[in-house]
Design a protein that fits this description.
The complex is a heterodimer of chains A (about 140) and B (about 160). With about 140 residues, chain A is mainly α. Chain A contains 6 helices and no strands. At the A-B interface, helix 1, helix 2, helix 3, helix 4 and helix 5 of A face helix 2, helix 3, helix 4, helix 5 and helix 6 of B.
Amino acid sequence: MKALSALPIGVFFGIVLVKSEVASWFRIQAMFRFQEAHMYLVMSAAVVVGLISVQIIRRLGIVSLAGPISYENKDFTWGTVIGGAIFGIGWAITGACPGPVYAQVGSGEAMALATFAGVFSGAYLYAWLQPRLPH
Amino acid sequence: MKIVLSPWPWYVAGPMIGLVVPLLLLTVGKPFGISSSFRHLCSLALPGSRLHYLNQHDWRRETWNLLFVGGIAIGAALGAQFHSAEPVLLLPDHYSGLSGIVRLFLGGLLVGFGTRYADGCTSGHSIMGISSLNWPSLVATLSFFAGGLLVIHVVPGLWVVGSAP
């Protein structure tokens, strides 16, 4: 069960999401209102570390404990722009992107269960509408 | 201890979030991404679905992702209960009662639909995608901010967004 190592990595990520307040509605509001740089700096620093490590791992052809690494390059579709903007609207309303939804529920925010139910239903709505949407 | 108990600054939190990318690549061999977990959950909860997007998808091959998001909830519980001096407030007071439930559900609906349509969220596109130098992920990230800034600045006073902090 190599998949099991994802659990402690998730625990680590959950602690960071709460301790950095990335999972806080207030931080997301302050980000969209340009009131503080916190979120922009967190995301930029995360991308710098991510970029360096992905480039090293990829260029040296390093394999994982579970075998060859599966990289997926996401395609550009209408969904990239339309779906992306729809997500952004929901992000501003709920103060949570998908990771923080799990973090808010885990931290004991009862109201976040409404967000969770919404995201689940939204994913189902997409599954239902997918054949009719432009891609 | 004060450093552990107070909110962490960006130069600590940011690199730690970035570190999740190589950790997942080197252990499970998978790219960092979270919104796809909701597709797995839909497939898992609705095994008899006739929808192509759900029945042509084997969530059992993505168990790592469900373990990962379960870990996020556990980690958040640990961070909120045992490592914080003051109670952690993640949602504002005005998101309470039935009106709060409706707003958060509707906002969540847009998050779930939008991230699946865009094939990724802040983790899969903004962090993993950009780290892989995948240009559609940069377009996706700009679209996320276009949507968020639109609803905050262009249509303020919208009932679902609520009052300014």
